[in-house]
Amino acid sequence: MTDHTNDAQSTVLVIGGGVGGIKAAMDLSEARKDVLLVDKAAAIGGLMTQLDRTFPTNNCDLCTISPHLSAGAREQHIELMPLTEVTALAGDAGDFTVTLTSAPRYIDLDKCTACGECHKQYPECVRFYPGLDHRAPTCMRYPQATPQAFSIDMAACKDVDALVKVCPAGAIVVDDQEKEVTRRVSSIILAVGAELFDPGKLDHFGHGRYPNVVTGLEYERIMSASGPTLGNLVRPSDGQAPKRVAWIQCAGSRGINREDVSYCSSVCCMYALKEAIVTKERFQDDIETTIFFMDMRTFGKDYEAYYQRAKEQYNIRMVRCRPHSIVPDPGGQEMRISYATDEVSGMTTENFDMVVLSTGFRPAAHTVQLAETLGIALNTHQFVQSNHFEPVVTSRPGIYVCGVSEGPKDIPETMVQASAAACMAARHTDKALHDVEENDEYPPERDVFGEAPRIGVFVCDCGQNIGGAMDVEALVQESAKYPHVVHAEMAGHGCGQEALARMRRMIEEKKLNRVVVGACSPRTHEGLFQENLRKAGLNKYLLEIANIRDQNAWVHGGARELATAKGKKLIRMAVGAVAQAGPLREHTLPMNKDVLVLGGGVAGMNSALSLGDQGYKVFLAERTGRLGGLAAVIRRNLEGDDVRVYVAQLVERVQAHDNIEVITNAIVVDHSGMPGKFQTGFQIGPRMYYRQIEHGATVLATGALAHRPNQYLLGRHKAVMTQLDLDDLIEAQPDRIKDWECMVMIQCVGSRTAENPNCSRICCQTAIKNALRLTDLNPEMRVFVLYRDMRTYGFSEDAYIEARRRGVIFVRYEAEKTPQVTADGDRVTVQFDDPILGRPMEVSADCLGLSTGLIADDETTEDLAAIFHLNRTEDGHFLEDHVKLKPLDMSVPGFFVAGTAHSPRSIAESIAQAQGVAGRIQGLLSQDVINLGAVVARVDRDKCATCLVCVRACPYNVPFINEDRYSEIDPAKCHGCGTCAAECPAKAIQLSCFEDAPIMAKLEGLLERIA
Amino acid sequence: MITAERKPLAEIIDYIDNCRRILLVGCNECVTVCAAGGRKEVAMLASAMQMDFMKRGKTVDIREMTLERQCEPEYVEELAPFIDQVDAVVSMACGCGVQEVVRRFRDKRVYPAVNTQFMGAAERPGVWAERCHGCGNCLLGLTGGICPIARCSKRLMNGPCGGSSKGKCEVSPEIDCVWQLIWDRLKELGIEDRYEEIILAKDWRTERGGGPRKIVREDLAQ
Amino acid sequence: MERFEPVIVAFCCHYCAYTAADMAGTMRLDYPANVKIVRVPCSGKVDPIHMMKALELGADGVLVAGCLEGDCHFKTGNVRAARRVAYVQQQLEEIGIEPERLAMVTMSAGMGTRFASIANEFTEQIRKLGPNPVAAVRKGQAAAEPVAQVN
């Protein structure tokens, strides 16, 4: 690990190693900032590592992220301190002194190989995380716990000497002590998450008393392949497969009773749907799934479609009711739920095999303690207080917050805040660090030219992942016989710290000049092993990976001999190919560090300011003639802040900023280049003069449109207006409004419909914001809100409660039976069915407010998508690279998305994205050069027949016939597809890394037995 | 450029069926460009030949070589170190290349692997069309720069004939009537009058009428 | 009689087919061990010579696997690959080797299931064709002929 003693001005302390903390740490390390990551637990990963799958993709996304968490990728900038808590803080932003207390692990991290002997022999002494167990037979949940080591619970250990003896690595440290250190850091990111509510405190649900009542997370563990039942869904009481499973939403949330919290946990609706869908996917018609809910809050990007799929495609039964209690069926193992619905008078009673309680987030007691230690304010719910216009800023300068510690939210929103916090925290670090040349730490590359190949073969067992499917020992013995192989050995978890260090040692000792690793896919781990070669003084291209896990062990799990034979062949092929490999140089270009931000709304301006403050030159291009976007016409947010003042200040700061150049009336017309070297052409102003801007990264903050569907007399009757109109009217003409007697609001106008299936996310809050302001002006005013599901997620539930307290009447309507609106002079008459009274109602209103929400700016996103080759969602928003893990990155490298161009969202959420994007861009632009890699086509001038085939075949028009009369391919422009190499009739072109020789060697290696 | 097409495999195999060691020689000029006999086609043919032999229970030793220009003695000389090790040479060059190898290695059997076609141009990638017949007396100056000898099915000097229809030749709808092309071109240049001038009967002695041709540049000849 | 186990080479493009093959593993889908993968950046990188050489060296079947049409990471590599496969199939016919021993397939990165089912079907197809006639002879040879180098 790097020496961090001299870290006063350059280190960011990240507290909490869940996905939020990890993301913040990774973003900072990408931006070449040093990070000290502390976590209370023995391994990082947080809650996400225990999830079976994540919505809305139903993928195990951890498999995607875990390689990035492994030590090799992060060690240069991230120092990890597990089992550690912050116990004191002094100093100010830019120079904090923090006291850290680490609990004893009783394990020497440098020695532990995670072999599992201690756990096998003395399970009671080992702190063991079922979700993190890499050895579970079919577990792929989290094969690489970081740090990959066990920890001992000494108090539980009766025979310490015996335990010490059982460890083959001698890693158990009996006299390990609690340690306290002080460190200087420049800024702090708080990412401690929250706990899940323990429903055992609610006696009416019987959790803890009845084994068949479980929490959502417990259900997740039962379904998980790495869980206690190895993924078999069984009823805990008797191990029988359940036939009927029910979910009860809002267990402990949205309540006013003992142990309840008033806020909404934001994620439980989606996770219940996910668990029900996954259950249905696995058992189809063999199982019945029922969800008891109050409001279905699927407000995220494309989440509404997920909800519709759950109902229509998977036949998940939705019952709108909050059951009071769960009681055991006297006849057996089943649980009985009685409930009432609108449709049926009286109570209905049903039995279920299992009941899942959808429990939400609660701030942990130690978080409250930690907030006190750090001196930061908490809100009324004991979550960290943040500012609506600065969503990751806490009450103490220099301390930032992200994820669930700031408020309930899902993983993508956590990721966004983490990147935003990384961006903000980096402001306090020493900028000079940028200039440190990173590669200095590597030894010089050994010249292997002219040496005969000396190949080392390292075969991973990856725990049971590879070792369980084939005879790794036999693979090693066989490899030793292959040509040029001078060393072969088992590598255990080859990607672990210990194994990598050993590989480097072997390279040196055995004078290896080529390496084959029998491992997982090169797609995920090639970079890691390449870097290891480089550290050992070898060129990183003297490596070949034989994919014996993803493409062998996992495919032939049940056929050991077959898998072993195929594994041998795969290694034989790799040995053949690596013998032909030569050292390669990577091509680089200078990085253009300017940023183009498209869109001058709140998101665009915040991105520009965050980047401009960091010293990046920003071009802020706005299509219209003014800055401010949609927010410029909003008067108040839900919390009552004056949005107009905020936007005006923002515009002023942007226009006065030395590093920001604002270009208005600018329309994008062309684009070329790659990250770090883009050129984008604009037509600017009424004269449409052409200007080309060179930039290194691009932010898409082009916003969305306020929807104005032709419904409910909108635009045809002056008493009918959108919530946006109403917001303005309340500020502009309060005296007129004061006299209104009755106001009706209709939700989901133009949203959640066949034409626009998604939820606009902001409308429920907006309606309540306006309802509260109306009742402020005139407490006697009758306000009706006609809604489908109230989606006041997170703390905005408090405003919903307040509105009801003030007598605002909320009436639900069904999508099939929308309210009827007719003109009545200056007034409008609204007819609707009241589901509780069970009869039609008619209200004469002074004003009808329509919650019309936002729709994508389809025309703009379509044009930009065509010019930049970007992906879009079906409804015309930009589609991010990965909905869960990379919510801000577009799949085209160098492009990022923020604000409502991504999906409908609040101002605070847009600002978080805007700052998050700035955090991501810091990482991208921290490098001084663009690495183009080494996979480029090279021309042998002596063989070239100047036939022009390559010139014509290249999809990027790179090759040309130069003055010396042969084809020339600029490595800076070559994309490395190899089309030219395959087409050249003179065989004058070879693609580095994929030359004919290694490909032929692979074929010969594979087929030599036959020959 | 000289164009060529590979011969059917069976014909090539027929020539060399009793050989065990073969030198397969490509050329890095015209036949490379028209994808008939460059390094890549040499490798393809070598593999095809090998498989054909193996299918019949035999194997051959095929040495692949591609010369810069097989119609030049110095380049052909590069074959000398290997020539004694082989039973036969198979050449993928045009007829000129094949004969140059024959001229140098009198006692070696040399077989062609391509059919030399015509002098042509690449109409588009992968498509080559005849453009010049090598008549020895170029009359492109009279025909708007488009050759009726190479491109008229009848080699008419004063066309078109009655078989020209809608700009196409009666021989095949794939073939443009060259006299239509010539007329269009003359019109574009505004020299339609030229069309009225009768081109006199061609003196074919400059083609093959005077026997095999030779060019001698006294100043360069050694 | 012992069941014929063909050897099949699959040239898989990095962005789609190779990823799909990894995905098949992640999904624990069983497909025949007969199929061995050679990774290439793009199916457009697969030279006709490689297809020929694989068969000459004794492979019983060769797959060229790229991205779905229109989805090539490098724009048109998969289209070129398909054309080359058709060309090599003609060559094989001339030699008298069943052209069905060579096939072009396409899939997206997420199609682990498709990769596994293609691997199954193609292996079955080749099993029906029987051993590569070239391979049958090779086994009888005492020693392989020296493979001549391309200059």
UniProtKB/TrEMBL annotation, chain A:
It comes from the Bacteria. Residues 103-131, 148-177, 935-964, 965-994 form the 4Fe-4S ferredoxin-type domain. InterPro entries: 4Fe4S_Fe-S-bd, 4Fe4S_Fe_S_CS, FAD/NAD-bd_sf, FAD/NAD-binding_dom, HdrA-like. Its cofactor is FAD. Pfam families: FAD_oxidored (PF12831), Fer4_10 (PF13237), Pyr_redox_2 (PF07992). Keywords: 4Fe-4S, FAD, Flavoprotein, Iron, Iron-sulfur, Metal-binding, Oxidoreductase. Belongs to the HdrA family. This is FAD-dependent oxidoreductase.
Automatic annotation (TrEMBL), chain B:
InterPro entries: DUF5981. Pfam families: DUF5981. Residues 111-205 form the Methylene-tetrahydrofolate reductase C-terminal-like domain. It comes from the Bacteria. This is Methylenetetrahydrofolate reductase C-terminal domain-containing protein. It comes from Desulfatitalea alkaliphila. The lineage of its organism: Bacteria, Pseudomonadati, Thermodesulfobacteriota, Desulfobacteria, Desulfobacterales.
